[in-house]
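seq as requested:
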Amino acid sequence: MLKDITLGQFFPGDTVAHRLDPRTKILLVVLYIVALFCAKSLLAYGILAAVLAVCVRISRVGIKSLVRGLKPVVFIIVFTGILNLFFTPGEHILAELGFLRISAEGLQNAVFMVLRIMLLIMGTFLMTYTTSPISLTDGLERLLGGLKKIHVPVHELAMIMSIALRFIPTLIEETDKIMSAQKARGADFESGNIIQKAKALIPILVPLFISAFRRADELAVAMECRCYHGGEGRTKLHVLQYEGRDYLALALGLAVTAGIIVLRQFT
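struct tokens:
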């Protein structure tokens, strides 16, 4: 299960998706999320799924990597779908199970909600797969640069987000090693009720927290030794600059989002 968590991983490549400016990819993800929340028909979700499939094809990441990333959140997706299925009021009742009712409107909302969550997660993961944490930091800092005028610590916030994404795979690997070591000593994490399973996680959480704090301390010491004092006066080795492909990608993203919004008016 832990190996299926792919958030924060970066797959190096030389495709058009990898060469796009990180600011462009962040804005495209925002547009994609807006389009997802504006979609209200199977046609709209089909268009957005097709757009994601084209992006996956261009990036050469592989649909299997995106689907594998969904495994850790399957419970949340199913639970959300069940809530929408049984607790959405509607006039056209399809079935009744005691006080629970399944309506046509509830079924539609459940399907749309499941599709929305899946496409949203896969679209966000695709950005992290094709963008290095350093590039994401630079892109976020440049996009939010205007907030510096009101004394918002943009550089520090972007750095925190980048470090968090960077260390997710590291912590997952560390957790897997701790679990393997505990199992070798006879620990059982699968049997018992929920309370017993929760108690069994304590031998994992304690060394994991210690390891995380140790890594954080080492990182802080390393940054201090290199005279890191925030973004004040810092220069960039690679200066971000928009190119023709970035403007084309943004234009296509705006066109798709506008089309979904217009389609919403006719459904």
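The chain has a mean pLDDT of 83.
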